[in-house]
Design a protein that fits this description.
seven-stranded mixed β-sheet; 2 domains; Rossmann fold; globular; Metallo-beta-lactamase, Chain A
Length: 451
Amino acid sequence: MKAKFFGGAGTVTGSKTIIESNGVQILIDCGQFQGIKPLRELNWEPLPVLPSSIDYVLLTHGHLDHCGWLPRLVNQGFSGKIFCTSPTKDIAKLILLDSAKIQEEEANRANEGNYSKHQIAEPLYTVAQAEAVFSHFRVVEENEVVALDAEISAVFTNAGHILGACTLTLNLESKTLVFSGDLGRDNDVLMYPPTKPKKADYVFIESTYGNRIHPKEEVKLLLETYVNNAYSRGGTIIIPSFAVERAQTLMYMLWQLKEEGRIPNIPYIIDTPMGISVLEIFRNNKKWHKISVSECEKMCAMFDMVSNYQETINFIYNKNPKVVIAASGMINGGRVLSYLERYISLPETTIIIVGYQAEGTRGRKLLEGAKDLKIRGKYYDVKANVVEIEGLSAHGDQNDLLNWLSEIENKPKKVFLVHGENAPADELRIKINERYGWDCTIPLMGQEFEL
């Protein structure tokens, strides 16, 4: 049995791990690379194994860095089944279609504006190629034992990260392999805490925040302060947000603040069509989150739900103070770019960063104090007030990750630290070894291990 790491190794994006056993190849996640250009360029490279040779894909959750390369995989010959939970299937569909649409729009814009380095800019994949993935999805229930092969089974258990997110347990060759996927927090606003594994011969654990402890900050108080400060200056508040889970958490907290009379009566805008669609998935999957149906309805009533781009333009050119939640969360694309083109150079504007910002993304550059930002081929001076709320992360911190391992009854043969940049992964490796005495390895991209 072998484990091969083709993504999510030394980086937080592009998650792809292949387990090969007795001629069967199982791909755990199939993510798109994001961030710095050398990583993004990997999306155009062929997979080191033939997609047609992969028998199954097991999807931990529907974020782009875990499912965003599926259209390329299918287009290049994969014909097997993609197993995931029902919310993950629904979210992955939304995210793949949105990604494909953005890819097509960016390619068209680059060709029209003649700012691509290529003679003809092409999308990584098209909407039609994204849609071709959907027939491969197979829905599984939480805790259901899924027989992939006569001697291979998989179980999906709650990971607490976003709706439908799961840890995967693979049983094969008399061994138990546990893949954390992205782990949520033990005390998340919307999600239930992750289920802890009891047994594992090999553990594949994410390490996004392996060297960080989330600050014990009053998130609602910070949100209240930033909104009121910007309002007092006559400015607009822009919150780049992931459309899944983060946008809904922000909506929930802003609704609570408004109900408590702690923030002003100004327009509150959710300008992410995908984020609006996710609200319906929330309504249909009550068992996966803490928010009640009545709370969801009241929360939604407070917001202007922007569905078409003309509405976006109208809000952009409305000079009055407002709060805008818009995708994408790392400012890689999406409608938030249109707002930033208008508002990033205004000193009365406040930009609130509320999630992990991968290396090379516009969000990371803003946090690092960039004086200008390139958007759609043009540079804009950054004069807006850029602030961060760390306590909204949907990823567990170092304590959460260590705690998730605490109920494993046996000593694993090896722990692989994946989905993290090198420094966080290495510090988590040291902490796991100190606390549990387990053998830990940080795999390199393209590395292969015999299990």
